[in-house]
Each structure stands twice: as structure tokens, then as C-alpha cells.
Amino acid sequence: MQNREAGKFYGHKKKVTYADNNVPVYKLRIAKLPKQLKSVRIEQHFSKFGQLINVEILYGKTRSFPTQCIIHYQNAKDAGAALKQKYHTINHQRVKVQSCPGWEQPYLIESLFAKSSNNVNLLTLNDYCLERIFQHLDLRQQLRLSLCHSRLDKIFTYMICSRLQRTFYLEELLQFSTREQRQFLKTADIYMERFVIAKEYQGFKSIRNICAFLKEFRLRIKSLHIIKWMPVQYRTFLTSLQLSYIGELEMYRCNLKDIHLKCFLKLPNLKVLGLARNHLLKGTYLKCFRKLERLSLYECWNISNDEFSQCCRHLHLSYLDIRKCIRPTETIVYLCKNLDTIKLSGFIEYIVKLPKLRSLEVHHSNSPITIRFYNALVEHHADNLRELKLTGETYLMLPTVARIVRLHKLRTLWLGDYAYNGSEQVVQLVTKLSDLEEISLHYSLRIRDQHLLPLIIKCTKLKRINLRMCRYITSNFIWSTLEILSQRIAAAQPLVILVYGTRIKADILRSSVYRKNRRLLKLLFHDDKQLTGLVNEGSSFDINDFELNRTTIDTMDVEFMNDLPEENNDASD
């Protein structure tokens, strides 16, 4: 009877069956194997469909993990023939047969490496050549190639993954197939340090698979940033990680309440916490995060001064962002003696009494307290303040700039967002800051090319200039800057200038003069992104260009031009 049932498969043409992600099926699985069935009987039954490589029985340790059987065929068509029949009867025992998941199937694409007179066998190349092939592919193509053979898998794991970015985005991972997701998390897990979830998703089937893989491979992610996710969505993701390794957590606009902060208390080594724009927080449990060093409460306006005072009494913070949140009292300032970085929405005179203050960001305004604030700031921190970032569309008067430049140790200076803050007189005053490394003059309509040249000449440590939307800056400024820089000893890093919205066109990147001097100067053409808590905290040069605009005009054009012949390059001037 069994021979007759098996015979009807041999009478038809066998076809290959595919698992998820279009992976040919070689391995079958009996999910719940009866205890009476032995491997000999199973092998006798399934060998009627084709040649077997192995029959393996996996015994379950508990009732929740029943005994399973893995049947490995040598030919995918034979496995497909066995799968045509969903239920099989062996020794009067009815069993259900299904295909194993795609990632459990063996390496299959032997046709790529078959010896032929017309094709090159890929595996005959040395490791260096294979590495160069991988480098010309994007990440998904690299993953697909690594799945083709065990040797390619080792090339990807040991030679490619170590050069990948340490920051990874969930939206990129969701574009991969299930097998590619598992392969990536399996091989690149030790190199992933920062995970960013910056998008809302309608379906969560793929995310559940990713959570299962994260739990399987026990990823040691140190920094996790979740943006615009509801509490129900991120809890499963959070519990799938190794909580003891998470030292930095940001929850941006996640509609958090105080009760939701309780689950974050399970993170024993949490030192950085960003809670920007969670308007429902009242700050009841903030005092429980005893190891916290950096805290962002931007636009958490429901937090009271009393609750925040309790928080400051128990914590030893070095970084604090309370813009549009609370107005700190003198008691709060006294409790936060260890602060070296603070961000405020307005001038508060007793902030200058912080003994370790190194970085200050404040919304500038022309009020009677302004003069007293800057005078006190110069008096207490003329020798130790490193960063002063002024924001807001308020006019910055020359006497105020004259007081600012008395902070002669400044390395970073932002001059607000008002269109008439930047001028020739302002630049002349700023040139007195010999240690200046970064300056922001964006939206300045009075700035011209010749006004900025004294800044390049006198501030020899300058590394970054923000000229975004300075509409009267032309390419002549770039050529003059290159001439000045070429007369100096080359710095370790090029001078970076953000020129979005100026009269400088992206065609300048194609010039051979610019390309030959890229070690001296780098131009960025991307627009600024709105600062969102700790993900984009800081300079628009480093964070926005590297994280949010990873394929800028700069990198694309330069890579394209490097592939052109030399004579074509010179012709593009």
C-alpha cells in the first residue's frame, strides 16, 4: 500500500519547493514526532522520495518543546515531492511534515561556482579579491552573496562587518527578507553599538521576527534611540535586548507617562536618558535612576520644580537639557554642582555660579538681565567656558558680542538665528578667539566673502563653519580659503564648511582643484535637521551629515568623479 502511494509521486514530474524568501527546500521537519517512531523507520519511509543525507531526531527537554525530526534531502526536487503530501503515515502513526525555515536550509547556489570554460569560478579568487567584490555591493547584496557559500560567509563576517557603521537603523533592517535579517544579526551583532528606530510602522510581523532574532543572538547594544513609538510597541523590543549592556536610552515623543519609566529601572547601567517631548511626564520616578549622568527633558513642561529638585538631590548629573521645560531655581542650581553642560530657554543669572560649567546653550533675548548675565559669565568662566550656543531670532548687538569674546577660551560659538547678527564688525571681534574651532553664522545676510577671510587667517584652529543660508557667499570665498590653507601645515582633519543655501553650487565638487585639496577643505550641501533630543544633539556638521544624510551630494559626486579618466577630470574645471 505504501509502495502504491509512493508510486504516484514517481509518475509525475518533480518540482522544487521554495520556503520563505525564495529559498529552495532541502530540509523537512516533523514538528511533533511520536515517541514510538525510530529514525530507521523514518529513513525507510522518506527515502522512497529520493536520496537522503541525514535524518536527525531532536529530543525535547520539556513538554513545551516536543521531540522533532529533521529530514535532509540531497536534491531539492525530492524534498518537494515529499512535501506534496502534508500528512504521512509511518507504522500506523500519522505525522505532519513541513519545510524548515529558510535560514536553516543549506547553502544552495552551487551554480555560481560550477567549473565552466566560459565562466570564472568565484571561489578560485583569493580573499583580497573577494573582499573587493564585497566592497562594490550595498549591504543587502553583500548579505545575499554571503549566503551563497560558507567561504563567502567568512569573508563577510571577518573582513566586511568590522568596517560597517556602528549605528544601524531599523527601517533598513525591515527592507531585508527574513533570512537576510537573521544572517545580518548573526554576523554583525558584535559590531552593533547603536540602534535607532526613527519611524512608525503599520505592520509588526517583521519587527516580531527581528525581536526573536535579537533575543536568540543576545545582541549587546549599548545605545538605543526610539522615536515616535507607543509604549505598547517598544516594550517587546526592549525586552529582547541584553538590558545590562544598555547605557544610553532615548525615548523621543513616545507619549510616556510616569508609570512607563518603571520598566526603564530594569536597566542597571543606564547613564544617559533622553525624554524629549514627552509632555505627560511629571518626573515622579526620575530620582530612582541613581547612575544617571546625562538627562534631556526638552519640552517636558508638566514636570514641576519640586519634583525636579528631588531628582537633582539624588542624581549627580553632568549634562542637563531643560529647554521649554522648567525654569531652574537657585536651589536647583545649588544641587546640580557637577553640571558641565546645560541648555536653557532663557537667561538665569545664577546659572553662572555652576563651578564646572563648560558648555552653555541658551535662547538669546535683549532684556535688562542680558548685560548682567554676560558680565557675570565673563567674571566666573572666562577661563573655562568652552562652548556658547546662542539660539533664537533676536538681534545680537555689538556690545554683547564684545562681552562674549572676553570668554577667550571658547572653542564653539553660535551667534543665533537672526538674519542681521552676522556682519563685518562681528567677524572682526570674533577673530580675537584664538582657540575657536567651530562658528555658526547661518542666516546672516550681511556677510560677504571678504568679511570671512580674516577669520580663516587668524583663527588657525578653526575646523567647522556653518554658513547655511548666507545668500551672498560665493565660490570666490572657497578659492581664497584654499589659497590660505595651502600655505599652512596640513591639519589632521579638513576644514568643514556647510554652504547650503549660498551661491556656491554643487558643481564645485567636480572641480579638479577642489578634489586635489580635499585634505584641506570639505564642503557640505545638506540642509540642517531639527535637533531632536540626544540623537541629533550637538553640531550639525558631525551628526546630521554622518547619520541623517549618509548619501550626501559630496560623497556621491566624489566617488563618481574618481571613476572617471584623468583627462575627463581636468576637463570638468
Automatic annotation (TrEMBL):
Keywords of this entry: RNA-binding
GO molecular function: RNA binding
SMART domains, alphabetized: RRM
Keyword Transferase: no
GO terms under biological process: SCF-dependent proteasomal ubiquitin-dependent protein catabolic process
InterPro entries per the UniProt record, alphabetical: LRR_dom_sf (IPR032675), Nucleotide-bd_a/b_plait_sf (IPR012677), RBD_domain_sf (IPR035979), RRM_dom (IPR000504)
RRM domain segment(s): 26-102
Pfam families given in the database record: RRM_1 (PF00076)
One Gene Ontology CC term in the entry: SCF ubiquitin ligase complex
Protein name: RRM domain-containing protein
Source species: Bactrocera latifrons
Upper taxonomic lineage: Eukaryota, Metazoa, Ecdysozoa, Arthropoda, Hexapoda
